[in-house]
Amino acid sequence: MQVDISELRREVGARKAFSFCGPLEDGFPAGISLAGPVEVEGTVLNTGPAYLVEGSIRAQVEAVCSRCLTPFRQVVEAPLREEFREGSPPPPGQDEVSEDSGVEVWFFQGDVMDLSEAVRQNLILALPTQPLCRPDCPGLCPVCGRRLDEGACDCRVEDVDPRLEGLRRFLNPKE
What we know:
Elements lengths: L1 E3 L10 E8 L10 E14 L4 E14 L6 E16 L18 E4 L3 E3 L1 H11 L38 H7 L4
Parallel strand pairs: 5-6
Antiparallel strand pairs: 1-7, 2-3, 3-4, 4-5
């Protein structure tokens, strides 16, 4: 996912559109992987001291439902807004943030900007923290582990805080 900016260098305010559809290197959280190519569309704008990249990311990911542990596929979309500057990055621990846009600054050298890592990080940030196969997923029975969307089980579940067990016995001495 590289953009050639050699034509943009000539004029401040110059803009170039780009579009990619291809694989992205791994590095996603456990239980989540790409299920196909990543689609990226956007523009690069020469702002003078930097190049502003704006666009959108779309990818299909394969995840495991955090309630029922069933694998499923989901489309994830994310905005892309990053600033790139030519030169060497600052020393580790001194990440530079743009004063103009408030976004992290990426560095590159030469006439080609590699957007792969910026795309990967923005896609990871757009992933749900608790992926669900569907919003109303009932999950698993906490006693036997049966998937509750397959039907109810005969397990008896008592939601009593163990710290209040003495009070429950006091109020219900017949149990």
